[in-house]
Amino acid sequence: MAVCVAVIAKENYxxxxxxxxxxxxxKFHYMVHTSLxxxxxxxxxxxxxxxxxxxxxxxxxxxxxDYKVYGYVTNSKVKFVMVVDxxxxxxxxNEIRSMFRKLHNSYTDVMCNPFYNPGDRIQSxxxxxxxxxxxxxxxxxxxxxxRMGGRPGHGPxxxxxxxxxxxxxxx
Amino acid sequence: xxxxxxxxxxxxxQTLLVVVQPVGIVSEENFFRIxxxxxxxSQISVRxxxxxxxxxxxxxxxxxxxxxxxxxxxxxxVGLITIxxxxxxxxxxxxxxxxxxxxxxxxxxxxxSRLFVFxxxxxxxxxxxxxxxxxxxYEDCEAVExxxxxxxxxxxxxxxxxxxxxxxxxxxxxxxxxxxxxxKKDFVGLDTDSSMxxxxxRHYKKRCQxxxxxxxxxxxxxxxxxxxSLVHYHMSVELLRSxxxxxxxxxxxxxxxxxxxxxxxxGGTGGKTGARRFQGSSLPAEAANxxxxxAQEVLIDPGALTTNGINPDTSAEIGRAxxxxxxxxxxxxxxxxxxxxxxxxxxxxxxxxxxxxxxxVLAIQKRSMDASEFLQNAVYINLRxxxxxxxxxxxxxxxxxxxxxxxxxxxxxxxxxAAMQCVAPSISEPGWRACYKLLLETxxxxxxxxxxxxFSRGTHRGWAAVQxxxxxxxxxxxxxxxxxxxxxxxxxxxxxxxLDFLSDQEKKDVTQSLENYTCKCxxxxxxxxxxxxxxxxxVPFTKLPIVRRVKLLNLPASLRPQKMKSLLGQNVSTKSPxxxxxxxxxxRGEERxxxxxxxxxxxxxxxxxxxxxxxxxxxLRVENMGLLTSGVDFESLPAALxxxxxxxxxxxxxxxxxxxxxxxxxxxxxxxxxGVFSDCLLDNLPGxxxxxxxxxxxxxxxxxxxxxxxxxxxxxxxxxSGDEISTNVSVQLYNGEAQQLVIQLENIGTEPLETLEVTSxxxxxxxxxxxxxLSWNLEETLAQFPLQPGKVATFVVNxxxxxxxxxQENLLQxxxxxxxxxSGFPLCSPFRxxxxxxxxxxxxxAPEGGKPGDPSHMKTLEAILNFKYSGGPGHAEGYYRxxxxxxxxEAEPSVFFTRVTTLPATSTRQCHLLLDIFNSTEHExxxxxxxxxxxxxxxxxxxxxxxxxxxxxxxxxxxxPGEKGQLANPKQLEEERQExxxxxxxxxxDVHWRIPSLKRTGEASVEGLLSQLVLEHLQLAPxxxxxxxxxQPCDCEAAAxxxxxxVRLEVRLTNQSxxxxxxxxxxxxxxxxxQNGVHNYDLHDAVSFVGSSTFYLDxxxxxxxxxxxxxxxxxxxxDFFLHIHFHQDSASxxxxxxxxxxxxxxxxxxxxxx
Lengths: 171, 1154
Prior knowledge:
The structure holds two protein chains of two kinds.
Chain A: E1 2-8, E2 14-19, H1 25-46, E3 57-63, E4 67-73, E5 79-85, H2 93-112
Antiparallel strand pairs in A: 1-2, 1-5, 3-4, 4-5
Chain B: E1 15-23, H1 28-39, E2 43-45, E3 52-58, H2 63-66, E4 77-85, H3 92-105, E5 112-118, E6 132-135, H4 144-169, H5 184-187, H6 198-222, H7 226-243, H8 246-264, H9 284-288, H10 293-300, H11 313-317, H12 320-323, H13 327-341, H14 348-365, H15 368-379, H16 388-404, H17 408-422, H18 432-442, H19 453-456, H20 464-480, H21 484-497, H22 504-520, E7 528-529, E8 535-536, E9 546-552, E10 561-563, H23 568-571, H24 582-594, E11 595-601, E12 606-613, E13 620-630, E14 634-637, E15 639-643, E16 650-658, E17 662-673, E18 676-681, E19 689-690, E20 694-698, E21 704-708, E22 727-734, E23 738-747, E24 755-762, E25 774-776, H25 779-782, E26 792-800, H26 809-815, E27 859-870, H27 872-876, E28 879-892, E29 895-904, E30 910-919, E31 925-928, E32 935-937, E33 942-950, H28 961-967, H29 970-989, E34 991-995, E35 1000-1004, H30 1012-1018, E36 1023-1029, E37 1032-1033, E38 1039-1042, E39 1046-1055, E40 1064-1073, E41 1079-1080, E42 1087-1090, E43 1094-1097, E44 1105-1114, E45 1118-1126, H31 1130-1133, E46 1145-1150
Parallel strand pairs in B: 1-3, 1-4, 4-5, 5-6, 9-19, 11-20, 22-28, 38-46
Antiparallel strand pairs in B: 2-3, 7-8, 9-12, 10-28, 12-16, 13-15, 13-17, 14-16, 17-18, 17-20, 21-23, 23-26, 24-27, 25-26, 27-28, 29-30, 30-33, 31-32, 31-34, 34-35, 36-37, 36-39, 39-44, 40-41, 40-43, 40-45, 42-44, 45-46
């Protein structure tokens, strides 16, 4: 299981970042932020490859003492970064891949939401902080980032947008 | 060896290490002056060869590093230059002693040394010594460079001899085993001669050979023999690999790499690292001087190396092309070397430095991923317990290296760690300045700019959490540095740019601390210059409060300047000969984008409305909020406001007074929030709606204030009235009443009021109004002009309400049964029948009907009085102001004429007008007409009033056709005519009413209720018939005559109609009225005509006269009437019958005796 999941926009700012041990969230922010260097490097190295042949999964970005950081980049250059515990040996490359694939599906669902403004922060409705050490992103319900009058809005869409289908279950 | 030199790069392997040190007391300034000159001599072409020597100067070098000199010869201090001050000869021996002590430190490895003495003069300086140079002072020492060059040449000689010595040694019996310091104890007591097994001995010998080969390779590299060194390294690698001497194998591999790097990258790998200041040991100049023409030559013509004939056998052993590693191989070999080094804990520094060197090479090769692997490895090399300073140094260098390979984020991360390390709690004297400086350097890595303008565009795009942390750290560090202005600036920036990401609690905390800071040091709009040189731009709080809309307000309607219409010609663009061109129109449209089409007036308070809201979860106090303008001197009057928490859009009006004229542009506004002054420019505000910000200020105009004798009314005029009314007054009047409205005109401005024009406009009303509603005489008022400021003039307006006095239908209905009716008078002619308005018998309680005097009968009249005034410089520019006074008049009904009829009077020139007058007020009322008695009417009473009036000959005056007649259609003309008639009649009648109890009087007008029929009756016919009996005109009174005498009868016609009439035939028929409705026409016996009873009249021209004569003879006494009637012929039918209204002649025939 991952301890931190991040979705990063094409312009390298976070669209979504959530970590399981919420008490030291900033550490993961730093970790994901620095991993972007490697992501950038890998993408630029990959640049020459044909688009349809390109592997989206970037593999291990870098290991630290406690964690391993994996990366994934969509064709639209949106990056997914996942931090997993180094001690968790059950997670092989295949598992990581499938986790990324699910994440990608969820992200696609968010994009399908007509109320979502591409580029805005993504709000997750999943109460993923409830279970410690378990960043469950169940559903992704984007909210209206800006309410009328330009005030930044929080909370779910006032129109009561239906929950997105295909929730990501435990991984 | 424990102190790593992070600045090392691969090409440092070919340098000779020279330590330059001061002895005794030498000022730092002087020392570095000399040091700089010395280190400028960093490469020397050796005499008689194409080889180049490279020198690396250090002013500080730990002696324990020197001990590794055998391992890698570039670590060996081979030269020492000592700089000292000595001012007297007696100090000299002591100074010289110190030099020797200094030499001792590096004694084992030194090839040569020099002492530079400054300040000493006299005989000692005369001694010719090679190792000591005397200079009188620090300025006067041109020969330093030359000295150094000589010194280096001497070093070269030693180096070259050693190289040759070692290189040729290999055939000798005994090769010493070179050791690194920690190995020495391993080999202590090892008898290399006897007590070893043969295999071991061979092994040992190979090891000795391998290490020596490596050492010779180092020396060759230092001596500028690149190709040779490659060969030696290769051989060394072979030898050492076979004996598993890993540490030295690593060193040999690294040497191979270094030589290959020098070969491949003559530009150097550490070239642009300007970061040597951390070491504090070398100068940037040194790095800049690293260019190696020699190495280039080697590449081009490696054969030149062997021309000297030194060690010719090596080139034969291995082919030249094979010697140099390919770029990929370099990295592989580095990897291998590092893996060997890592086997030895004591070689940590070597490993670390190798990593750094490899990273520099990879950076040149642009292989960032590989480089990051090396760096990752370097991070985990654990040397020993590092001091805080060393930690800082290490993190800094990691940051720099990451920067070098383009990992800016990683670089920023390590730099921030270094910054944090500067102020770690374990440090007794935290370096807040250094911390702050390092933190500033991390900003680009976190894509954070301290210029708020970069954030104002669009939404925030960045790592808010990380950036916020960094900003907090900057705030804290700058505060601890003792620079509150910086803290305020950073905190303002945090609040301004990260507002969307702060939680409510954080917002409170941040503003709380900001207020605490600004108590001591208020935030300003000035650029702050940082110690390092960069500047911090000011942070205007454009989000506290957020401004959504900026709107320049027009002056209130009463103060709005207007351009004189007469100057129309000026408005037409003179640029084009065309009256209209789409191109011009287009240009105007563009201008209009910015410029607003109203004007402000100099000296008048002008307003700008902002729609603001407070994004904070608490009340926001904004002080000193005012406008920023340009173009015109503007006196801004700042406002203070307090916005409730999370307020919605909230209008704020900022005011100011323009002091001069011209185009004024509102650029923005300034505020003071939480003690921070902000100048917010509109151009930099995102999402602000503005309808233009430039407006013209015209010269000053006077200001007029009006007050009236009438009470003000809250009642506003009909919304559709269009004009904006500043004052409304109201008055209640009875219909027909008049009142004076006295208006006080006061000039409350600063300019004299020079001109005044008054116009009035009656708002459309259904009521028909008779006479002038408002009338005035302006001359008296204008006589008081020009009106100086503060002066008052008076202006009088007469209000007269004259509405229709005719009766409404419902009233008529009420009154239809009260018995007042007009019955035909016996004498009435057939066409004088009163047309009685037959009202259908409606139910009495008609829906709209109320009782007379009911409020529904009250009518409202509204008018606007416009005062156009001007004066002062604004008048000269052709502007005026318009002040409007709304007048609201409630007209209550006074009297009604329920019915108007006429009765013929006895004379055909006169008639009786019968007016049924109804008092609709609640008061007793008297009505009088000219020459009549007063008629008293009680409330709600209706009475008839009869007025005898002379008939009118309308035709004489209202015919003002000429010019009018052709334009207006006949119907209008007819109406006009009727109106004029009404007016004429009215003035003749002069009906007044009076309410004694209220002491109010007024007129009553019959104008509106005169029907065509009544008018006809009141009109003199254009054909005027006169009957003369005995030469006396006979109209109403009876003419007397004697029986038996012929009575002369003359019928005279005066034609006043515009056309000729006639001819007519008239017949006189006498009759007697029996007063019982019977007329006796059978009077042949009583009356006899002298001549014919029928008269003939010829055609009469307009304004002509004609007469016919006859005579009558009355045979009996009695009252006789003569009925003169026309013969029914075609001619008379064309004319209206009323024209043939002849007086009836009454003749009284008397007895002859009487």
